[in-house]
Amino acid sequence: MGEVVAVRLHRRSGHVGLSMLDVDDSEPVLRAPELVPGGGPWLVPGRDLVQRTSTAQSLHNTPAPEAPDERSPAGAKALKSAGLALATERAKVQQLEVELQVLRAANNRHQTHAALLDADVMLGRQQAAELSGVEREIDRLRRELATTNRQLSDLRKKLRAVRKDEAVPDQVFLDPDKDFDFRLKYSWAVQIPASEKSRLPLGRYRIGGEFLRSLRDQPQEKQKKACKAIVDLLVNDPAKLSAREAHQLRTAASGGSPAVTRNGGQDVCWRLYIEQNVAAARRLHYWKCADGVIELASVTVHDGTQA
């Protein structure tokens, strides 16, 4: 009685409690508070309530109790009971130490989990901020796209107006040959860039007997496409002719059929594409004559074999 010992103060469910189970001898002990200002702590480690001299004197004056005789049955039973009680208390202490270790490990896991959750929260906030920035950028691009579309629509309207003003009349010359020659040269002037006109002049040609009739039978849009194809033919640009797949006209659909010729084989009939990948695509048939002149033969559909 009266011994000063170190304990741990804790709160559980709103109640204050004391425990000696998890007190380590190496831990520092907090200083007890002062009950009277300037009077010092009310409790000091090592200073027991009963003076040691009084204890020694009391012990000196009090006769020592007789120790139980181990040889007697009662003494042996008492020692055995004390040993069992001590072993039980030691087992309880060990069990409490195990539970304490388990609780500390669980606490560490909880702290690690809490740290991971904090990191997830920070990442989520960062991603939310980035998403907000992306959404603002999308809104800005949408506004820019709407403005661009309006500008493009205005430009298309102006382009249609310009094309309408610059459109070639249906008939410029009364003579059909002169009228076609004008339209062909106009198409060449528009189609060939200014820097390329000296390199790609319009070559010599003549109009076959059925050509103008076959051309007039086509819709206006097809006639314009035919003029563009004839320009590519007469400037004799290998790349343009290759793109239009210029080839000899055969007497039959099979590849081994002989070419269509005249004048004893001196003039050979050729064909090139006016348009591709459309239904009833138009083709241009023409003669490569012995004198080097291109004679325009007809405008026909893709499967025609007549010159």
Automatic annotation (TrEMBL):
Coiled-coil stretches, from where to where?
A: 86-165
Q: Does the keyword Coiled coil apply?
A: yes
Q: Which UniProt keywords apply?
A: Coiled coil
The ranges of region (Disordered) come to: 54-76
This chain belongs to the protein called Uncharacterized protein
